[in-house]
């Protein structure tokens, strides 16, 4: 059986992720108490279900400490378990709650009132979910549209099971650093195609930009140094039981240099490791 566990901050997009998994032919269950996880899986085994998506969130706060042991039991039973944690900045979550006028599920826990109370509640939720976050692949949804998040979730679950998956992500510093990054590399010091009028509307996926950047020794040096750093530590990271490593590469706008390096590096590692690639700014425009 293939099991996808969806957890994360309230307001970060768990319902959107579940809809994506439902489209991918998973049997989906929302807000399952952790204490019922193993009995529920056993029941679905009897029903011959092969793909389950289960959302567990802070509404089950009292039994969240059970989750690490529950996941270990499922893996010992031979299940393929992928754990995805959806996150977003506090400012983003505040805006989403303001737009939807929904109450936070932990409302009333804070000692203050108004926006300050909501901020305090969100930070309290972060603390409750911190252990689950550490054991999951984190997706920062702060700048995502629903369609973008659905696409990312589908790409993750469609990837074959592997001990460790490398995720290369390009981004623009002008829109902030991704919260889901394990490693961040700044490539803003490299030659910028933005200042070449014929290259400005293109991206790092276009051959003209690739040819331009490929001419510079410092670009090749940066690519090699990032490659060597990641390659050196991958075995140790896998030994530490990591399932996903997200390598974020940023330039000013997330259109040319970072996209080029993500394309090059994901291709370089693809022969030895399962790799996924994302382009945060480009994906947001599609």
Helix-strand layout with pairing:
Blueprint: E1 2-8, H1 14-23, E2 27-30, H2 37-46, E3 51-55, H3 67-76, E4 80-87, H4 90-100, H5 114-134, E5 137-140, H6 146-158, E6 165-172, E7 183-186, H7 207-213, H8 217-239, E8 244-251, H9 257-269, E9 274-279, H10 280-284
Parallel strand pairs: 1-3, 1-4, 2-3, 4-5, 6-8, 6-9, 7-8
Describe the structure.
The chain is α/β, with parallel strands linked by helices. It has two domains: 2-158, P-loop containing nucleotide triphosphate hydrolases (Rossmann fold, 3-Layer(aba) Sandwich); 165-284, no CATH class. Helices cover 43% and strands 19% of the residues. It contains ten helices and nine strands. The strands form two sheets. The protein has a five-stranded parallel beta sheet, with helices on both faces. Strands 7-8-6-9 form a four-stranded parallel beta sheet, with helices on both faces. Helix 2 (37-46) links the parallel strand 2 and strand 3. The radius of gyration is 20 Å and the shape is globular. The two termini are 33 Å apart. The model has no long low-confidence stretch (mean pLDDT 90).
